[in-house]
Design a protein that fits this description.
The chain is of the alpha/beta class. The chain folds into two domains: 3-101, Enolase-like, N-terminal domain (Enolase-like, domain 1, 2-Layer Sandwich); 115-313, TIM Barrel, CATH 3.20.20.120. 31% of the residues lie in helices and 24% in strands. The protein is built from twelve helices and 14 strands. An eight-stranded parallel β-sheet has the order 5-6-7-8-9-10-11-12. Helix 1 (55-63) crosses helix 3 and helix 5 runs parallel beside helix 6 (151-161). The radius of gyration is 19 Å and the shape is globular. The relative contact order is 0.15.
C-alpha cells in the first residue's frame, strides 16, 4: 500500500523566462513521493496560474487523498491537472521500482529512443531574440515565444541568426483574429513549421475555414480526452502536457485519440526539472513535435537528470524515474 507525501520546491531559472503573459525567475514545483516498503517513486508537477492552480492548492489537494490509493483509482479521485500529474507519475515510478519493470513496458510501449526537442527562446525585442538565436543556432529545433505586434520582426531576426534551425512559434493566446491574414503567410515565408495557440482559448471558432499556411496547434484549448472533439476543424495539432491531462495515464490516451482524429501530436511541458520531463518522454515517442526543454532553462537540475545532447533528449535513467 503506497504512502504519499508532497512538498514544494523551487529551482532558479537562468536569467528569466518571458511569454506573452509575463516573466518568471524560478520554477516552483510540487514533488510527490510514493513509498511502499523500501521502494520509493517520485513525480513532479508545475501548478499553473493560467488554470487557477497554485503550489499551496496542489499540496492541499494531494493531502486529501486516501493513503493506499493506486494509479487507477486516482483518475476519479482527483480532477485532471498538475496535482494529479505529480501523484500519477510517482505511482508509475513506484510500480516500476516494486515490480522491476520499466515504465515503458508497464505502459505497453516500445523501448523509448532519444527524441529531438525544441529549445525555447523567451519573448523579447527582435534584437534580443536574434542574439539568443545566434547563441543557439546549433540546435536543430527552436521554439519562439511571441506576443502579437512585432512578431514578424522577431521571427525574421531569429531566422537571420539561425538560418539552419527548424522553427516553431508559440503565441500563448496573444494574437487576435485580425492579425491572422498578415501573420500566417509571414510565418510560412519564414519557414515556421508549427504555430501554437495563436488565439485565446474559447476564440477557436475564428480559425475555422482559414487558409492553413502553417499547421496550427492547440495548447491552452486542449486539456484531456473530453476536449479533443471540440477542436476538430479548428486545429491541425494538439499539445499534450502532463500537467494539463493530469498525468501520464491520461496523456497516453489523449495522444492515441488525437492521432485517431487526424491531429498531429506535440508533447510539451511547463518549466520544471528532469523529473517532470521523464514521463512525458514516453508520450514523446508518439509525437511529431517535442518540447521538453524545461531543465535546459534552469540554473540547476535534479541529480541524475535527463541527458540532453546534440538537440536530443535521452530517455531517463531508472535512478531518476521509471
Amino acid at each position: 500500500m503506497a504512502t504519499l507525501t508532497a512538498r514544494a520546491e523551487s529551482f532558479p531559472i537562468r536569467g528569466s523566462f518571458t511569454i506573452s503573459r509575463g516573466s518568471k525567475t524560478s520554477a516552483d514545483v510540487v514533488l510527490v513521493e510514493a513509498r511502499e516498503g523500501s521502494h520509493r517513486g517520485q513525480g513532479e508537477c508545475v501548478p499553473y496560474p493560467r488554470y487557477d492552480e497554485t503550489v499551496a492548492g496542489a499540496l492541499a489537494d494531494i493531502a486529501k487523498l486516501p493513503q493506499g490509493i493506486d494509479r487507477r483509482t486516482l483518475q476519479t479521485a482527483m480532477k485532471p491537472g498538475a496535482a494529479r500529474n505529480a501523484v500519477d507519475a510517482a505511482l508509475w515510478d513506484l510500480e516500476a521500482k516494486t515490480t522491476g519493470t520499466p515504465a515503458w513496458k508497464l505502459a505497453g510501449l516500445p523501448e523509448p529512443k532519444p527524441v529531438v526537442t525544441a529549445y525555447t527562446l523567451s519573448l523579447g525585442t527582435p534584437e534580443a531574440m536574434g542574439k539568443a538565436a545566434a547563441e543557439n543556432a546549433y540546435r536543430p529545433l527552436l521554439k519562439l515565444k511571441l506576443g502579437g505586434e512585432g512578431d514578424i520582426a522577431r521571427v525574421e531576426a531569429v531566422r537571420r541568426n539561425a538560418p539552419d534551425a527548424r522553427l516553431i512559434v508559440d503565441a500563448n493566446e496573444a494574437w487576435t483574429p485580425d492579425l491572422l491574414p498578415v501573420l500566417l503567410p509571414a510565418m510560412a515565408r519564414l519557414g515556421v513549421e508549427l504555430i501554437e495557440q495563436p488565439l485565446p482559448a474559447g476564440k477557436d471558432q475564428a480559425l475555422k475555414g482559414i487558409k492553413r499556411d502553417v499547421p496550427i496547434c492547440a495548447d491552452e484549448s486542449c486539456h484531456g480526452l473530453d476536449t479533443l472533439h471540440e477542436l476538430v476543424g479548428y486545429y491541425d495539432a494538439v499539445n499534450v502536457k502532463l500537467d494539463k491531462t493530469g498525468g501520464l495515464t491520461e496523456a497516453l490516451l489523449v495522444a492515441d485519440k488525437a492521432r485517431s482524429l487526424g491531429f498531429q501530436v506535440m508533447v510539451g511541458c511547463m518549466l520544471g526539472t528532469s523529473l517532470g520531463m521523464a514521463p512525458a518522454l514516453l508520450v514523446a515517442q508518439l509525437a511529431q513535435f517535442v518540447d521538453l526543454d524545461g531543465p535546459l532553462l534552469l540554473a540547476r537540475d535534479r541529480e541524475n537528470g535527463i541527458d540532453y545532447r546534440d538537440g536530443l533528449a535521452h530517455p531517463p535513467s531508472a535512478a531518476l524515474w521509471g
